[in-house]
Design a protein that fits this description.
2 domains; seven-stranded mixed sheet; binds NADPH dihydro-nicotinamide-adenine-dinucleotide phosphate; six-stranded parallel sheet; Rossmann fold
Length: 386
């Protein structure tokens, strides 16, 4: 019997919900391009429930415990002697979400003698040291595509809210004001602007598709070009590097994985090549942007706005400069954890565990590391040093 250690974010401060804003969520059975949504043998939750916090337990508790497995769920992950650190010693499986990542460093992996499987309930496994996972023969899997459209919707929301100056305008209303000039002094139309995405994978392409009806000029850079048909359909301009693309853009959205090539990409040097007043949206990973360079660029006007939901570390300290820098639209890491997305990645996590316990191969598209090497989606998105 296995010990499954699940690190999830805390329940709401006013308690685990007993009712919800909506009675149901749409049933999504496949994704753009045809990949099937998760197909577990069963689920023990109602889609639309809060599953990503401690009491939700990703809907896994009844199923795992009735099969004789041990499930430990905690949000306590970072402090010295955390529950995560204590329970890791004999855990067979670790599950966490990128929103509240259990940082599986090389040192922790070395201490976790029973560890065989690491599951990202969501997408993005950079919180696991993939070199160490390869070296220790672990399997690392994530629920590919489960929240890609959720993030794409969030990106579109953030672009519009920055360009149109939505958040400060909303604040004037909450504060009892009617200060139209204050609101519109930084408000523009998106129409006609040049919008570029760094990477046009699942999320990047979904962002491009959602923005096309806004009559903008669309740009992208990616290691591989999209088909000529897609480029024509969406009116895309391809650039062979981020450096070549960003000087043309009024809005830049980052949708690439974090790896050595993208870490620190948006630093002083690249930011200085962007048009004054560019909006930068990063829902990919915080470390793709240089924390202090972004702060400086907002203060000197190079950037007119920065928004995203990814931070380093997560949660960030109270004095993290991105909490207080001007003209930002940051949220906690939520774009991929809507109730709709949770239903899919909880079902995908169950599907991965069902295969693992039955000794069946995991779906190829869920694999990041397997049998001592990058595999599946991981071979496509990541690189390791071994
Ligand atoms: P995909 O794997 O579908 O797409 C990533 C794309 O990035 C690929 O086309 C890849 O190219 C390209 N790429 C990689 N490196 C570079 C580079 N240096 N320059 C340009 N393009 C590059 O991933 P998703 O679209 O599903 O997700 C992207 C990232 O978004 C994830 O890695 C994750 O970090 C983040 N994410 C954030 C979430 C959130 O909640 N905020 C939720 C889900 C994901 P190639 O095909 O050639 O490898």
């Amino acid at each position: 019997m296995a010990k499954v250690l699940c690190v999830l974010y805390d329940d709401p401060v006013d308690g685990y919900p007993t009712s919800y804003a909506r009675d149901d969520i749409p049933a999504i059975t496949s994704y753009p391009g045809g990949q099937r949504a998760p197909t577990p043998e069963g689920v023990d939750f109602t889609p639309g429930e809060l599953l990503g916090s401690v009491s939700g337990a990703l809907g896994l508790r009844d199923w795992l415990e009735s099969a004789g497995h041990t499930l430990v769920v905690t949000s306590d992950k970072d402090r010295e002697g955390s529950v995560f650190d204590q329970e890791l010693a004999d855990a067979d499986v670790v599950i966490s979400q990128p929103f509240w990542p259990a940082y599986l460093t090389a040192e922790r992996i070395a201490r976790a003698k029973n560890l065989k499987l690491v599951v990202t309930a969501g997408i993005g496994s950079d919180h696991t040291d993939l070199d160490a996972a390869v070296a220790h023969g672990l399997t690392v899997a994530e629920v590919t595509f489960s929240n890609s459209i959720s993030v794409a919707e969030h990106v579109v929301m953030m672009i519009l809210s920055l360009v149109r100056n939505y958040l400060p305008s909303h604040q004037w209303v909450r504060d009892g004001g009617w200060n139209i000039a204050d609101c519109v002094a930084r408000s523009y139309d998106l129409e006609g602007m040049h919008v570029g995405t760094v990477a046009a994978g699942r999320i990047g392409l979904a962002v491009l598709r959602r923005l096309a009806p806004f009559d903008v000029q669309l740009h992208y850079t990616d290691r591989h070009r999209l088909s000529a048909d897609v480029e024509r359909e969406l009116g895309l301009t391809w650039h062979d590097s981020t450096e070549a693309m960003v000087p043309h853009c009024d809005v830049v959205t980052v949708n690439a994985p974090l790896h050595p090539e993208t870490e620190g990409l948006f630093g002083d040097k690249l930011l200085s090549t962007m048009k004054r007043g560019t909006y930068l949206i990063n829902t990919a990973r915080a470390k793709i942007a240089d924390r202090d360079a972004v702060d400086r660029a907002l203060r000197d006007g190079r950037l007119a706005g920065y928004a995203g939901d990814v931070w380093y570390p997560q949660p960030p300290p109270a004095d993290h400069p991105w909490r207080t820098m001007p003209h930002h639209g940051m949220t906690p890491h939520i774009s991929g954890s809507s109730l709709s997305a949770q239903a899919r990645y909880a079902a995908g996590t169950r599907e991965i565990l069902e295969s693992f316990f039955a000794g069946r191969p995991l779906r190829e598209e869920y694999l990041i590391v397997d049998k001592g090497a990058l595999a599946g989606a991981g071979a496509h998105a990541y690189s390791v040093n071994t």
